[in-house]
Amino acid sequence: MTTPRNCAGHRMNLLQAWNRHILNSFVATMIAALSVFMLAQAAKAEELAERFAPYDPKSKVAIDHSAWSKLLKKHAHAGEDGLNRFDYAGLNKDGRGDLKKYLGQLQAVKPAKLNRDEQFAFWTNLYNAKTVDIIAEHYPVDSIRDIRLTSFIFPGPWREEVVKVDGVDLSLDDIEHRIMRPIWRDPRIHYVVNCAAVGCPNLQLEAYTSADLETMMERAAREYINSPRGVRFDGKDIIVSSLFDWYADDYGGSTSRILAHIRKYADPVLNDRLAGATSISDYEYDWALNDKK
Question: If you count Cβ atoms within 10 Å of the first and of the last residue's Cβ in the chain, which end, N or C, has fewer?
């Protein structure tokens, strides 16, 4: 004879089994969806790299980035701590229209008609200017990661298509990870594109241009690596930016190669402290907004 207690226990076992089934089904569905998403992203990366790889090595076309330089000189400010901060409130009061006009001019460019250095400056300035535009549109905000455009799954605006170049809708991630990184394969890309965070390499006080590209990229690398946002010490422990973790493959894929890259740009004082180092103790990144206030 089945007692009430046994019936209750049986019902509880059935409920638990059903909950496990629902959970397993949900996990399986999420894994399948993630796999499809990753495959789609890989296909998109290959497509965009191929789409925007062509260039004209003989081209003398020079894009006018003076409007962006003017906005940077007015609203970006170098701090005594080595961090360049941006006056987003000031831009919204005086300059947002000029920024929109500049972004419109960039999106009318045909990248294939440019030489390689001109392309690099174009993509860098487009990425940085659009990032500033997105922050200004949602300002005040504590961090770029707090901004949601249409997706409520991922933090930040990076995955949303926010610009159109040569008829192709692109996200900030498309520009950095599916165009710039696979085409140029230069770790200094991470020092020139700016994500509007305190932990990020500086938003420079002038636009990138093909004429000064190498000088500016080298300066950006040295600025960051020799700042505590790039490398700092806690006693004998070496703590570096999470950029070197997230994009380890771009820096050689091993701790020894990452340290070799850091030493390449380290000033004499930092190089002395890094002498004999073979390990990195931790990685860190400050996502607070690089706001002037």
Answer: N
